[in-house]
Amino acid sequence: MSEEKDLKLRESGSEVEDPQVEMALRNFRQSVRGWSDQEFGRARVPVRRGAAWWLVRHMGAAWALAVVLAVAGVSVPVGVHFHHQQVLAEAKNAADALEQAQQKRMAEQQLQAANIDDEALLKEVDGDIAQGTPDAMEPLASLMSDSAAK
Question: 3-state DSSP: the chain helix, strand, coil percent, rounded to 5?
Answer without folding.
Answer: 85, 0, 15
